[in-house]
Specification:
Layout lengths: L2 H22 L1 H5 L4
């Protein structure tokens, strides 16, 4: 089926995007949680 592949790609892209944002803006992700 297609669903596991799509979810894997989606979460992989989302994780990569979060890592890139965290790399470019180190304080952007840590600030709102505290």
């Amino acid at each position: 089926s297609v669903a596991p592949v799509l979810s894997t790609l989606w979460f992989g892209a989302l994780a990569g995007l979060l890592i890139e944002i965290n790399r470019l803006f180190p304080d952007a992700l840590s600030f709102p949680f505290f």
